[in-house]
DNA sequence: CAGTCGTGGGA
DNA sequence: TTCCCAAGACT
């Protein structure tokens, strides 16, 4: 299926002067990649809480899945403490499937991309309800589960179930684009990158191969200043031979981020502050938050204030940058003493001293810290 | 396909 | 400081 076997692994390719016939649609790799890469991995694999040492039996699929979801667009350093927290609170699918969803969202707070947490819960419920509490072991069945896309399905199939799967993440894209000096810009290059990744993926130790590619991309074949002389593949890398490996993969120009403006409303009542729950989908969906007005192209002032009280605007703002826009928040504070019935129908009064336990997304945690500092 | 969706860290 | 990225998925 991969067309990756080298001539050296079978009887002589040529006999009687007859040219070898192509065996595969995609061009066969001109050099062995998996061999030296796995050899390097055996000596240099990172030790990670969700990972089995090279060559060992596959780790718990639940832990592999949880780590893969958390690691989507997220650094290992950020994932480590959250992985420890989640595996302590919910050690398996059965526990997560019956978990209090608000507690899961609170535990996820700060990690970002909160749809992952919503899909995490949904996936655990499906696994328990339809798969008897265990993952289905085929890539196609994994792909059908909430929050599991092409990359994660392949990663779980190979790492947790020992199946051959073509695992392509940003690391693999970078390593492969450099190995073959693929000059086509992304995203058009993805077809060729995937074909090349398929061609170099071995049948045996497919999961170790995937993790080795990611370790290589993370520590050696880095986005800038790759450490080529420490790379086990540099003697067979077109990018290294070109003298400018960092130019691959070629990426499209980025668009400027728009700037938006909003207002945070800090309503106090006897040492507590009013918190609300954001709508279930969209930006920061499902997360507990401070009340906000609209996020608009110009400062919206006190529009959409959660309570009809006297607001005082602080002489400071809080800046935050999301993936696709910047946000500058004005800060409005108000005292609701004497309005004790107010607010109960729109949110909850949270003790200010325990605000860190509310599970606020970082943008609101920053605003809360700034308001408490200034007050 | 292209836009949406967070955050922290490295250079 | 500013820019860019990190084990992508979903619509």
UniProtKB/TrEMBL annotation:
The lineage of its organism: Bacteria, Pseudomonadati, Pseudomonadota, Alphaproteobacteria, Sphingomonadales. SMART domains: ENDO3c. GO terms for molecular function: 4 iron, 4 sulfur cluster binding; 8-oxo-7,8-dihydroguanine DNA N-glycosylase activity; adenine/guanine mispair binding; metal ion binding; oxidized purine DNA binding; purine-specific mismatch base pair DNA N-glycosylase activity. Gene3D superfamilies: Helix-hairpin-Helix base-excision DNA repair enzymes (C-terminal), Hypothetical protein, domain 2, Nucleoside Triphosphate Pyrophosphohydrolase. Its EC number is 3.2.2.31. Residues 70-219 form the HhH-GPD domain. It catalyses: Hydrolyzes free adenine bases from 7,8-dihydro-8-oxoguanine:adenine mismatched double-stranded DNA, leaving an apurinic site. CDD domains: ENDO3c (cd00056), NUDIX_DNA_Glycosylase_C-MutY (cd03431). InterPro entries: DNA_glycosylase, Endonuclease-III-like_CS2, HhH-GPD_domain, HhH_base_excis_C, HhH_motif, MIG/MutY, MutY_C, NUDIX_hydrolase-like_dom_sf. Binds 1 [4Fe-4S] cluster. One of its GO terms (biological process) is mismatch repair. It holds the Pfam family NUDIX_4. Belongs to the Nth/MutY family. Its cofactor is [4Fe-4S] cluster. It comes from Sphingomonas aliaeris. Keywords: 4Fe-4S, DNA damage, DNA repair, Glycosidase, Hydrolase, Iron, Iron-sulfur, Metal-binding. It comes from the Bacteria. Residues 1-27 are annotated as: Disordered. This is Adenine DNA glycosylase. SUPFAM superfamilies: DNA-glycosylase, Nudix.
């Amino acid at each position: 299926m991969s067309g990756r076997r080298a001539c050296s692994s079978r009887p002589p390719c040529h006999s009687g002067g007859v040219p070898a016939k192509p065996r595969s649609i995609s061009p066969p790799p001109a050099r062995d990649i998996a061999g030296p890469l796995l050899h390097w991995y055996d000596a240099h694999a990172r030790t990670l809480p969700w990972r089995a040492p090279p060559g060992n039996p596959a780790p718990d699929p639940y832990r592999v899945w949880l780590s893969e979801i958390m690691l989507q667009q997220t650094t290992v350093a950020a994932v480590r403490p959250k992985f420890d927290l989640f595996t302590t609170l919910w050690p398996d699918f059965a526990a997560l499937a019956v978990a209090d969803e608000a507690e899961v969202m609170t535990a996820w707070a700060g990690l970002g991309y909160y749809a992952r947490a919503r899909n995490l819960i949904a996936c655990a419920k499906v696994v328990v309800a339809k798969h008897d509490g265990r993952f289905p072991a085929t890539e196609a069945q994994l792909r059908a589960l909430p929050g599991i896309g092409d990359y994660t399905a392949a990663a779980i199939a190979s790492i947790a179930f020992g199946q051959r799967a073509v695992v392509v993440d940003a690391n693999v894209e970078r390593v492969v684009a450099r190995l073959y000096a693929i000059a086509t810009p992304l995203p058009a290059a993805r077809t060729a990158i995937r074909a090349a990744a398929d061609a170099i993926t071995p049948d045996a130790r497919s999961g170790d191969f995937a993790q080795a590619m990611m370790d290589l991309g993370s520590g050696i074949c880095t986005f800038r200043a790759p450490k080529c002389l420490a790379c086990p593949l540099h003697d067979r890398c077109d990018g290294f031979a070109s003298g400018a490996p960092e130019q691959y993969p070629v990426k499209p120009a980025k668009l400027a981020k728009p700037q938006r403006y909003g207002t945070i409303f800090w309503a106090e009542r006897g040492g507590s502050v009013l918190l609300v729950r954001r709508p279930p989908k969209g930006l920061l969906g499902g997360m507990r938050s401070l009340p906000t007005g609209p996020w608009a192209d110009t400062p919206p002032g006190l529009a959409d204030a959660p309570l009809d009280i006297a607001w005082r605007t602080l002489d400071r703002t809080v800046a935050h940058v999301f993936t696709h826009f910047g946000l500058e928040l004005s800060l409005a504070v108000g005292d609701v003493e004497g309005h004790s019935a107010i607010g109960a129908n729109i949110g909850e009064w949270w003790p200010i001293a325990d605000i860190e336990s509310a599970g606020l997304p970082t943008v609101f945690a920053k605003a809360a810290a700034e308001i408490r500092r200034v007050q």
